[in-house]
């Protein structure tokens, strides 16, 4: 029904990334949902791989909550505090979301993106035009952390490595099995987040109208809320975007769309939307069943766990096809649905648009090939450890004018694949 492996090369690479990140879980989940899209797996919870049922769960907080005992939100409360959106429900959540409605207005998104992505994207384009290899993983990591750096008010001179180290440190603390943090883990997470929260505190105190945290202060958002929010934005906004871009680049290469002339027929917004559907970087999200209920034919008891398998729910026949609209239950499902719908979606889209446009522009002029790629092993968010591209005319004689790596084989003899 919803098998992990698809027939096309882009789907096969996506499956490989999922299996490499979660070798055991991916097999268990794939087997469980291959017969029924809503199924109970003892010890794990009720798995949902159907887009309509996924949407039902995400848009019904009275039956399926993100807070409370054993929820994913509760995991973060000791680290981030009580008020970080992702551990809230009901009136308080709604009120905080409303107070943040301008956080990522189109003006703010443009300013953040210009400041953060602009120089890095231009430098990458120049490298490609000089015939050099560009690691898209590195580019996306730097852009996404620079963007969050601007949002939280980090000093512009702070090297990207500082935030990247903090992001990696936190991610390494969480796996599918993590239900709570012990005191030592809470202390480690807080110390990793200090760089972000201290920056947010200074920006909040300065109350400048040209910083995100300054504007929040002027709107009356408290210092505690601003500190917590900065950490939440950092946690949610770096790994997702940095994993998405290389996976979208991989899809473009596998579909043969990084050749001169190929990309011109694609609208960049369509490419990003279809790329996000295909890659769905937030693999799954959790809810707690609030009271006994029925879901997709499965009876559930109070406090049972629902695992909404977003990546599985967004599969469909035919693989990556920019321009094919994802409507109905699929619409934007990669950003969730309902009251917890991704707060940072406008910023994520702008960052991805900036980087994808650059790749499509260079590919339109000279063609791009994937010169090497490698799946990351045993990571929380499935991703490439490396995915380098270069212009088509560059490389050893036998590789000239090659056509990406549609079958997953690297073009460069020295490159490794998972
Ligand atoms: C491609 C990139 C991204 C993807 C795929 C993504 C996906 C998601 C999903 C699926 C949810 C809902 C989770 C649930 O319902 O349990 C979510 C929530 C959230 N996202 Fe994103 N996200 C991305 C980028 C970002 C960025 C860049 C930021 C911030 C700068 C951000 C901030 C948030 C926040 C704060 C929430 C929690 C909202 C709430 O609970 O009310 N995300 N995201």
TrEMBL record:
Which InterPro entries does this one have?
Answer: Cyt_P450, Cyt_P450_CS, Cyt_P450_sf
Please give the organism. Terrabacter carboxydivorans
Disordered: region residues: 391-418
What's the family? Belongs to the cytochrome P450 family.
Query: PROSITE patterns, from UniProt?
Result: CYTOCHROME_P450 (PS00086)
Oxidoreductase among the record's keywords? Answer: yes
Q: What is this protein called?
A: Cytochrome P450
- Top-level taxon of the source organism: Bacteria
Listed A to Z, the keywords are: Heme, Iron, Metal-binding, Monooxygenase, Oxidoreductase
Signal among keywords: no
UniProt xrefs under Gene3D superfamilies: Cytochrome P450
Regions of biased composition (Basic and acidic residues) lie at: 397-410
A Pfam family annotated for this chain is: p450
